[in-house]
Design goal:
single chain, alpha/beta, Aminopeptidase, four-stranded antiparallel sheet, 22% strand, binds zinc ion
Length: 439
């Protein structure tokens, strides 16, 4: 070899090394099998299908159990290891050759709300399954165990985010106590599904054995569609606080009591609700206020209301601002009560804390989108998801795809199939990139 030939081959070697350098942290050009995932989606959509074209698979119902049985068959057919824990979370595991490897959890939920849609939860589980199948068929050996998971009762038919809270070791005896609230005999439903209520606490996993959690989900609002963006990279999930605010006044004759002398509880509540909407828009741009119900007593044409009980919910992605919102609402309720000569009573009715997604995982998803040539934007999630629980323990991330017209929890829920496929591609390559970091 002449000197110049050597120099050319050395330069091309050097060039390859330079270009190969990133290749050690990038991944093969792999594609999921979109037709197979579509066939799965069509079959799953028939389990619990409703006349309006939606799906109803309430957690632990016959339809949910049928969907799980179908999913278990797909797991075994794909050559994954079938696993279910004491809280009924159902998994398919693509095991690493390294038995001490950590586990990367990827999934969502197969249960739905009453009269729900076909995409919420389902596409996250099916895409995770399709990613595991694709990786296995390509003969790629991951340095982590990949666990595709369907969480029990994500939608809260019985207990909101039950399965993932069990996995996170966050369940309390209260959670399986039927007397806790009015949503029925939960224990009996667990038993019927083959889950022993006293054992659900055993489903807790040691965070040291887990690498992280990743979920693909529909956006459920219309920000992505409006901006023409394919992928939403979730930065955080809003916290939620529920309150019951009761305005107490005095019942009186509706005709003979002067307008200026009334202690009208409903007038106070109505003023509060209107001002609370304004306050949220003006002071808490990313916050949400909702009043979902007002009970009025005594509730007659000819009696000034003596009581108005408003059920309100506040949401914010920033915990500090959620607390500020709460304080501002209490102050407002007090002022509206005073203006109408009323007294108020405020009861906290539960809620969830806001959750931040892991910054490294956010970067990883964004890098993956860029590499795949898909448009992306950062988003807050205004709906609750398993990742808000897992993020307390392990690095967590979420990928959103557009919901047409933002419609969800509705039979008309729809996402374009090409977006589902793009989301699954991002999921696949984020899994591969993340798993490589363990190697
Ligand atoms: Zn969901």
């Amino acid at each position: 070899m002449g000197a110049s030939a050597f120099r050319i081959s050395f330069l091309s070697w050097l060039n390859r090394m330079v270009t190969l350098q990133p290749a050690t942290v990038t991944v093969p050009d792999l594609r999921i099998n979109a037709e197979r995932m579509r066939a799965d989606f069509e079959t799953l959509s028939q389990i619990g299908e409703t006349p309006e074209g939606g799906v109803q698979r309430l957690a632990l119902s016959s339809e949910d159990l049928l969907a799980r049985a179908w999913f278990a068959d797909r797991i075994e057919e794909a050559g994954l290891i079938l696993h279910d824990d004491d809280a009924g979370n159902l998994s398919g595991i693509l095991a690493s050759k390294n038995p001490t490897a950590k586990t990367l959890l990827v999934g969502s939920h197969l249960d739905t709300v009453p009269n729900g849609g076909r995409y919420d939860g389902a596409i996250g589980v099916l895409a995770a399954l399709e990613c595991a199948r694709t990786i296995r068929e390509a003969g790629i050996e991951l340095p982590v165990h990949l666990e595709v998971i369907d969480f029990t009762d994500d939608e809260g038919c019985w207990r909101s985010l039950f399965g993932v809270r069990a996995l996170a070791g966050m369940l309390t005896p209260e959670d399986i106590n039927d007397a806790r609230n009015d949503n029925g005999p939960f224990r009996a439903a667990l038993v019927r599904a083959g889950i022993e209520p006293r054992n659900v606490f055993r489903a807790g996993r040691d965070p040291q054995t887990l690498m992280g959690y990743l979920e693909l989900h529909i956006e459920q609002s219309e920000r992505l569609e409006r901006s023409g963006t394919t992928i939403g990279v979730v930065t955080g999930i809003v916290g939620r606080s529920n309150y019951r605010i009761t305005f107490h006044g005095q019942a009186a004759h509706s005709g003979s009591t002067e307008m200026s002398r009334r202690r009208d509880a409903l007038a106070g509540a109505a003023l509060f609700i209107t001002r609370a909407h304004e306050l949220t828009r003006e002071r808490f741009a990313e916050g949400i206020f909702n009043c979902g119900n007002v009970e009025v007593e005594p509730g007659a044409f000819n009696v000034v209301p003596s009581l108005a009980r408003a059920k309100i919910q506040l949401r914010h992605v920033n915990t500090r601002l959620l607390r500020e919102m709460e304080a501002a609402m209490f102050e407002l309720a007090e002022a509206c009560a005073v203006a109408n000569s009323l007294t108020i009573e405020i009861e906290h009715m539960g809620g969830t804390e806001a959750a931040d997604m892991c910054p490294e995982v956010i970067d990883l998803i964004e890098t993956t989108c860029t590499r795949l040539g898909l448009s992306h934007q950062r988003l807050i999630s205004y709906s609750g998801h398993a990742a808000q629980i897992t993020s307390n323990l392990i690095p967590s991330g979420m990928i959103f795809i557009p919901s047409v017209d933002g419609i969800s929890h509705n039979p008309r829920e729809f996402s374009r199939w090409e977006d589902v496929v793009s989301g699954a591609q991002v999921l696949l390559h984020t899994i591969l990139a993340w798993a490589q970091r363990a190697g």
